[in-house]
Each structure stands twice: as structure tokens, then as C-alpha cells.
Design goal:
By secondary structure, the chain is an alpha/beta fold. The protein has helices spanning about 45-60, 70-80, 95-105, 120-130, 155-160, 195-200, 230-235, 240-245, 250-285, 305-320, 345-365; strands at about 10, 65, 85-90, 110-115, 135-140, 145, 150, 165-170, 205-210, 220-225, 300, 320, 325, 335-340, 370-375, 375-380. Helix 1 (about 45-60) packs parallel to helix 9, helix 2 (about 70-80) runs parallel beside helix 3 and helix 9 packs across helix 11 (about 345-365).
């Protein structure tokens, strides 16, 4: 009797399109060319202006500017602030692109000081040490940290800097499209997908948010949102609007369609996503395998040593599973999976079952031994 051939899996848990692929109407992409051929300072298409205002409004912010990417955005933003007396205090684990923008200020002799990740007391201490009258303190942090599964304590940061006439700048690339207003225990994502600011109930003129739309919304473009007064000031002095090409008209049209689709079906997609995240977590938890303790779709295997992590990762690759080998904030290796709303429940369940099977097989081989720890899962030792 012929042996049945083993099915080759091809499951992708490495794409950051959290809400899946949005189906856009190709027939409506009736733009004449991809660019006006003019710098934005001379002529900004009405569609771009309208899209910037709509996206900023979704975040609860007064106005917005579009950029081709967050690299353009943060370079332009910190070039603007480098013209003024500032001191920048940055979360030590802030996403690198914001840091690259800060290099512009550093080259001009500005104070740039890190503080401990999501640590309010550390920020207080650092500001107390480097702040002086006449200097505007600027705090830079990610809105939401996928590795921690938590938002930055933005309310507390604002309480520290507002008496000093300071400013909070967040990179909300992770939050926008996933988090939104009025979160509850039953719906931790909230509604609307406006990002970390509405999720935390923050509306404040001392906040700027720079966000890529390339993850949840799948649009290669970035939005800078803030108060009407501050955005107008940045717009007048922006070098990017003089020397760089703007987002293509095709990209802006795609963003317009995604904005409309998000209103119609975004909350449904986020609800689907939440079910899949919980299914993945519960499928591993019942076998004592720890994951990121968060509803966020970026999930990592926790509490395992580096050798085991490497062995599991190699086995998953052999089985046709696309995922990441990453390091957490203390540089410990982890395997990270990105759950999407368009993963089927069967695919998520298959992934969880496969992880359990691989771990049990490795353990039974005698390469690793483990002890059971109540409510925390396995702890492995070589």
C-alpha cells in the first residue's frame, strides 16, 4: 500500500497586515499620473489635504500632514524642532525610525537623553537633571509596545511635561487601525481604529502622533497629526514639502478607500482578530505554554531558553510556518507570530496544535527537561 504523502503547510504568521488584505476597487483608481510633478509647498492636491484631515480627525487630533513614510515624517519633524531650544527625552526602546529622525537634532547640538522603557519615575529623574528654563522638553515614545502588550503611560508623561510647556511625540504605527475609542473588557480594542490616543481617551494640544498606515491598513504612507496651530507651523517650515516627492496620488486614493472601508467593516475585522488571538493563546495555555499576555495580535512564546527557542523555530520552518525569531527588551530570544483577521480559525488552531506537538516531541527526545510551574507554564533547562 502506497504511503500517504505528508501535506506541506504554508501558513504565514509573519505579515503585519493585522486586519488582513483590504479589497480595493481597481476601477476607481482613475488618477491622472502618480504625481503632480510639483513640490507640496507649491501645490498640494485637494485629495491629500482632505485625507490628512480625515486621518487626524480619526485620532482625535486637529490637523494632519501626509508623508511617504515615517522616516520622512520624523526626519522632517525633528529638523523643525532643531530650530528651537529643546531637550528630547526618548524611551530607550522607542522604535528606531523615530531615533533616526532625532539624529538631525543631535547634529545641531540638542540634548537627547534616553529614559527607561515605560518608566515614569525614570522620566521624572532624567528631566529633572537636564531640563532648564527656556528649553522645551519633548518626550518621545511609542504609543503601544507589542513586546510588552501595553500602551505607554501617556497620561503620566503629559502630567510631567505640561507644567514645563513640554510636548509629547508618539509613534503610533502599532496602535492606529487596531486600538480605538471606548475600549471595554469584552472589546479591548475599542471602536474606530483611531489608535492609542482615543484608546486612552487623550485629546491634548501638547501631543503629536506620527503613524505609518502600512500595518493594519496596508497603505505605504504616514500621517502626522496634532493641533491645528502646531501642524500649520510645521507645514510652513517643512523641508520635506520643498525637496521631497509627496505620497503618490494612487497611494492617497488607496488611503481614501481604506478610510471608507474601515468605517464600514473595520470593527468587524477587529472583532474577528480578537477571536483569533484568544484562540491562539488558549490553545497553548491549556498545555502550559506561555505567550504574550495581551490582546494585541503580535504574540511571542515566553519562558523558554534560547536553545529551545531555536529548535522550535527550525521545526516550524520545516513545517512551512512563517514566523519571526526575535529578541525581547532584555535581548532574550523569542519566537513571534503575527495573528491576522483573515487567518481562519482552523489555521490558528493548527498553529497552536503544531507548537504543542513540536515542544512535546523535542522534550521526549531528552534534549530538554522541564518542570511544571503552576500558572506560568514550562520552564526549560538544558
Amino acid at each position: 500500500m502506497q504511503k500517504k504523502k505528508k501535506r506541506k503547510r504554508n501558513l504565514d504568521f509573519s505579515s503585519a497586515l493585522y486586519l488582513g488584505n483590504w479589497q480595493l476597487d481597481d476601477q476607481s483608481f482613475g488618477v491622472k499620473g502618480l504625481s503632480t510633478g510639483k513640490p507640496l509647498i507649491m501645490a498640494e492636491p485637494l485629495a491629500s489635504q482632505m485625507m490628512a484631515e480625515r486621518l487626524a480627525g480619526m485620532q482625535g487630533l486637529g490637523s494632519g500632514l501626509l508623508y511617504p513614510s515615517t522616516l520622512h515624517l520624523f526626519w522632517d519633524l525633528f529638523n523643525f524642532f532643531s530650530l528651537y531650544p529643546i531637550a528630547v527625552f526618548v524611551d530607550e526602546n522607542a522604535y528606531p525610525i523615530a531615533r533616526w529622525g532625532m539624529e538631525r537634532g543631535k547634529l545641531k547640538g540638542k540634548i537627547i537623553q534616553p529614559f527607561a522603557h515605560r518608566d515614569v519615575n525614570s522620566l521624572k529623574k532624567i528631566i529633572g537633571k537636564f531640563y532648564s528654563s527656556g528649553i522645551k522638553p519633548i518626550v518621545v515614545a511609542d504609543g503601544f509596545c507589542p513586546q510588552c502588550g501595553k500602551a505607554s503611560p501617556l497620561h503620566s508623561y503629559l502630567e510631567i511635561i505640561q507644567p514645563l510647556n513640554g510636548l509629547l511625540i508618539i509613534d503610533d504605527t502599532q496602535g492606529i487601525g487596531i486600538l480605538g475609542r471606548r475600549p471595554t473588557s469584552g472589546n479591548p480594542y475599542g471602536y474606530g481604529g483611531g489608535g492609542t490616543l482615543p484608546w486612552l481617551g487623550i485629546q491634548n494640544e501638547n501631543v503629536l502622533a506620527g503613524s505609518s498606515l502600512a500595518k493594519a491598513f496596508g497603505i505605504p504612507m504616514a500621517i502626522l497629526g496634532g493641533s491645528l496651530k502646531l501642524i500649520s507651523h510645521i507645514k510652513r517650515q517643512s523641508l520635506m514639502r520643498v525637496h521631497c516627492s509627496p505620497p503618490s496620488l494612487l497611494t492617497v486614493e488607496g488611503a481614501r478607500q481604506i478610510f471608507s472601508l474601515n468605517k464600514k467593516e473595520g470593527d468587524r475585522r477587529r472583532s474577528q482578530l480578537l477571536k483569533r488571538v484568544y484562540l491562539f493563546q488558549s490553545g497553548l495555555k491549556k498545555h502550559g505554554i506561555r505567550t504574550t499576555r495581551s490582546f494585541f495580535p503580535v504574540q511571542s512564546l515566553k519562558g523558554m531558553n534560547g536553545s529551545l527557542i531555536q529548535a522550535i523555530f527550525e521545526k516550524l520552518k520545516q513545517e512551512g510556518i512563517q514566523c519571526f525569531l526575535t529578541r525581547n527588551h532584555v535581548f532574550h530570544p523569542e519566537i513571534t507570530f503575527i495573528i491576522r483577521s483573515d487567518h481562519s480559525l482552523e489555521e490558528v488552531e493548527e498553529l497552536a496544535n503544531l507548537i504543542v506537538k513540536i515542544i512535546n516531541k523535542i522534550d521526549s527526545s531528552g534534549i530538554f527537561s522541564y518542570k511544571w510551574v503552576k500558572n506560568t507554564g514550562y520552564e526549560y533547562f538544558q
